Amino acid sequence: MSVLRIYFSSQWRDSASVCPWALCEDSGAVLQSGNGTLASMPKAKECVGILAPERTLLASVKMPPGARRQWQAALPFLAENQTLPDPEENHVVLAAAPGAGQVPLAISDKSWLRRIVDACRTAGLPLRKVVPEVLLPALNPPGWTVVWNGTGGFLRAGANAGMALDAGDEENPPVALRLMLNNAAGYPPDRIVIRLMPAPTGAETVMPRWGNVAVPLEAGESWDWRRAPIAAEVPNLLAGELAPPSRPQEWWPKLRPAAYVALVLLSVEMLGANLQWALLAHEKKSLQAAMESSFRKAFGNEVTMVNAPLQMQRNIADIKHGAGIEDDSDFFPLMNLSARALAKMPARSMRELHYESGRLEVEVNASTVRELETLQNGLRSAGLDVRADTHGSNNGFSSRLTIRLPAAS
User: Fold this and answer.
1) How far apart are CA 236 and CA 250, in angstroms?
2) For the whole model, what pTM was predicted?
3) Which residues pair with 350 in a beta bridge?
4) Which end of the chain is more exposed for a tag (fewer CB within 10 A), N or C?
């Protein structure tokens, strides 16, 4: 995936301003580079803004009392003593996780940073990250790193410490560097690595000879913001109210463990359900085979079998009738099972009664549907199968109930 890097210097004002850019591969190789307005730059799936050192202030303040969630919204006010503008004009993010009672902060101008975000959106550039250049050079503690162009540059003095350097030359170090060394008298760096970059005029920069600096100077690799690796711990200034909309590939890693757990649970549930259905189907098949075997033993193999339970019940009823024995599906036994529930209906509610082949049909009237439901529940409680065909009328409700033994349904 190609990434478009855009360098925002202190001279950038709006979308009409010209600024350097570089189209890079993930490996860091530069595919294209140039200078131009945001609208003229090549499109990429992701854009990264790099802020010049003088546009970012790194500070460390004492950790306030209370929970982190409570004081994180008050970061601009924590940095109030470190800046001249009103706290509302500052955009402040955590430069790293708080530790040792200190909160490292990265501070930039809110309105200026917002103009960058709005201009990139207008130009169709997906700006996802803005990082301070001062924290990009590699650091080898307890050494410091100075990026120098012959007249100025910047210093990285720690994991979250750095600053822009004022004017200097080949013989005289910047005043800010000397002040930093004086303040670090108790824990001075063991060396200062000098990384050169082209001078503003394009001329070649030579290694400085700062004789009045008591720390050894060491020549490092040349500096090129286009190829500089951006470590994961470098703070993204697009946080809080300036944060870009989240994308699936950003929140998916956080949800992935829960999704995997849910998938495993769903798989186990589906496996268990399928296993249960398979066992029930096997049990049904076994019972069906047992009933058919019993039927064949009782009535022979020459009889056509369609519904073994129903045919068995009817054949047994025929045998009982032939022997003069009453069957449970006959009129009087069936009526006797139904009588208790039917007796609870209001007087003259039964209009018609019909019996045929183990089936009792009763037509009843009721003033409410509730009465009909109570009647059906009473019949079912007596062990009967009930089917109802209910219609409304001017006088209430009329229902034709078909009552039979459950085995005959």
Assistant:
1) 14
2) 0.61
3) 364
4) N
CA trace torsion 112, 114, 115, 116 (10° rounding): 90
Which tens digit of pLDDT belongs to each residue from 252-309? 566 778 878 888 888 888 888 888 888 888 888 888 778 777 777 766 776 676 666 6
Q: Please spell the DSSP secondary structure of 111-144, one letter per residue.
A: HHHHHHHHHHHHTT--EEEEEEGGG-S---TT-E
Q: Write out pLDDT tens, residues 130-142.
A: 999 999 999 888 8
Enter the tokens of residue 120: 């990139």
Tell me 346's DSSP state. Answer: P
State the number of CA atoms in the 13 A half-sphere of 154 facing the CB: 22
DSSP state of 216: P
Which CATH code fits 137-224?
Answer: 3.30.420
The correct answer on CATH 3.30.1360.100 for the domain covering 321-408 is: yes
The helix or strand, by DSSP H or E, that contains position 69, with its residue range, turns out to be helix 68-72
Cα dihedral: 197, 198, 200, 202 (round 10): -170
HSE-CB of 48 using CA atoms within 13 angstroms:
25
Q: What is the β-pairing status of strands 90-94 and 102-109?
A: antiparallel
